[in-house]
Design goal:
Length: about 80
Amino acid sequence: MEKTEILIHVQTIFRDILDNEDITLGYETTANDVEEWDSLTHIQLIVAIEKHFKIKFTSKEILSWKNVGEMLDCINSKGV
Protein backbone atom coordinates (compact mmCIF):
# COMPACT_ATOMS: atom_id res chain seq x y z
CA MET A 1 0.00 0.00 0.00
CA GLU A 2 1.29 3.45 -0.88
CA LYS A 3 2.05 5.94 1.89
CA THR A 4 -0.69 8.26 0.61
CA GLU A 5 -3.23 5.42 0.83
CA ILE A 6 -2.12 4.67 4.39
CA LEU A 7 -2.54 8.38 5.22
CA ILE A 8 -6.15 8.30 3.96
CA HIS A 9 -6.93 5.28 6.18
CA VAL A 10 -5.20 6.84 9.20
CA GLN A 11 -6.98 10.16 8.66
CA THR A 12 -10.34 8.32 8.64
CA ILE A 13 -9.39 6.63 11.92
CA PHE A 14 -8.41 9.98 13.46
CA ARG A 15 -11.70 11.56 12.37
CA ASP A 16 -13.66 8.65 13.85
CA ILE A 17 -11.79 8.40 17.18
CA LEU A 18 -11.56 12.17 17.70
CA ASP A 19 -15.11 12.72 16.41
CA ASN A 20 -14.05 15.56 14.12
CA GLU A 21 -14.69 15.30 10.38
CA ASP A 22 -12.61 18.44 9.73
CA ILE A 23 -9.27 16.85 10.68
CA THR A 24 -6.82 16.91 7.80
CA LEU A 25 -3.54 15.12 8.45
CA GLY A 26 -0.26 15.75 6.70
CA TYR A 27 3.13 14.10 7.09
CA GLU A 28 4.32 16.88 9.41
CA THR A 29 1.17 16.92 11.60
CA THR A 30 1.81 16.50 15.34
CA ALA A 31 -0.44 16.17 18.38
CA ASN A 32 0.05 19.91 18.96
CA ASP A 33 -1.70 20.57 15.63
CA VAL A 34 -4.89 18.64 16.50
CA GLU A 35 -6.83 20.04 19.46
CA GLU A 36 -8.54 16.76 20.41
CA TRP A 37 -5.33 14.67 20.23
CA ASP A 38 -4.18 14.18 23.83
CA SER A 39 -2.45 11.32 25.66
CA LEU A 40 -5.66 9.34 26.18
CA THR A 41 -6.81 9.64 22.58
CA HIS A 42 -3.27 8.82 21.45
CA ILE A 43 -3.67 5.36 22.98
CA GLN A 44 -7.10 4.97 21.38
CA LEU A 45 -5.66 5.98 18.01
CA ILE A 46 -2.81 3.49 18.26
CA VAL A 47 -5.17 0.64 19.20
CA ALA A 48 -7.54 1.53 16.34
CA ILE A 49 -4.67 1.74 13.82
CA GLU A 50 -3.24 -1.60 14.99
CA LYS A 51 -6.67 -3.21 14.67
CA HIS A 52 -7.36 -1.67 11.25
CA PHE A 53 -4.05 -2.72 9.70
CA LYS A 54 -3.73 -5.95 11.75
CA ILE A 55 -0.29 -4.94 13.07
CA LYS A 56 1.35 -4.34 16.45
CA PHE A 57 3.65 -1.48 17.42
CA THR A 58 6.38 -1.72 20.03
CA SER A 59 6.62 0.91 22.75
CA LYS A 60 9.96 1.97 21.28
CA GLU A 61 8.36 2.58 17.88
CA ILE A 62 5.50 4.61 19.34
CA LEU A 63 7.82 6.76 21.45
CA SER A 64 10.08 7.48 18.45
CA TRP A 65 7.36 9.13 16.32
CA LYS A 66 7.70 12.89 16.04
CA ASN A 67 4.84 13.35 13.55
CA VAL A 68 2.23 11.54 11.46
CA GLY A 69 4.77 10.91 8.68
CA GLU A 70 6.94 8.84 11.02
CA MET A 71 3.87 6.91 12.14
CA LEU A 72 3.04 6.21 8.48
CA ASP A 73 6.62 5.07 7.81
CA CYS A 74 6.33 2.66 10.71
CA ILE A 75 3.00 1.28 9.44
CA ASN A 76 4.49 0.94 5.96
CA SER A 77 7.56 -0.88 7.31
CA LYS A 78 5.26 -3.61 8.65
CA GLY A 79 4.33 -4.63 5.12
CA VAL A 80 0.90 -3.03 4.99
